[in-house]
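Sat 14:20. Reprocessing the chain from the morning session after the first attempt stalled halfway. Input below, unchanged.
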Amino acid sequence: MSDTVIKKINNTIIFYERDNEKNIEQLFIDGFFNSDEKENVKLINNEHWIKKHYFRKGLMKFLGDNYLYAKLQNTRSFQEYSILKYLVKKNFNTCKPIIGWISSNMISYKANLVVEKIEDTKTLSATLISIYRGERDASAISSGYHLLGKEVARMHHHGVFHGDLNANNILVTGEIFNSTDKSSKGIYIIDFDKSKIQKISKKDISSNINRLKRSLDKIGIYNENDFKSFEIGYKSISNDPI
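Finished this time. Tokens:
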């Protein structure tokens, strides 16, 4: 990543894109990105940026925000930064990374990442809950799912496996499920923690799509007939079976 600046400041390593128009390093030194780091996600810079502080989940939750020390390229924030940067350069709809950093004591590290907030969007889950509770426009819902399937196929076409493709990690603009005349520019896939750039297998495809189905089902908005449009949209971009 030759266009990524990597600097060590005391016990912290920061990384950001070389051609960023802002003086990111000076902002970091001045404490612009500081916060109490008690929350996983926090809005900063007048709510235009999102700061993500990484916490462990599952069986390792008791370790909180501490991760076993690793070389920079293997840390959580650098890996997510790299995937976002790769996708943005491919003109894929996701968050643009601003800066990431790790603070370490050579035994463990803590990780942070700042990305641009995508304005005027809601999560897929919130959008669909609202739609299914109101008046359903079957053709618009079908069209929205079709576009969503195409966007997930594009992600796989770029060789990205999503670590947790659920209905809260997809953002949509208001018109996506309310019109039949639109493009997928209003669909954004976010949160690429634990994701990978790799050769996408049939197993990877099934894993991502089944995770999305489970998340929709968990909140009571999975509709098999509607989801068929997702599958048709996916296949229109990819020849892989799902």
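The longest strand covers residues 108-116.
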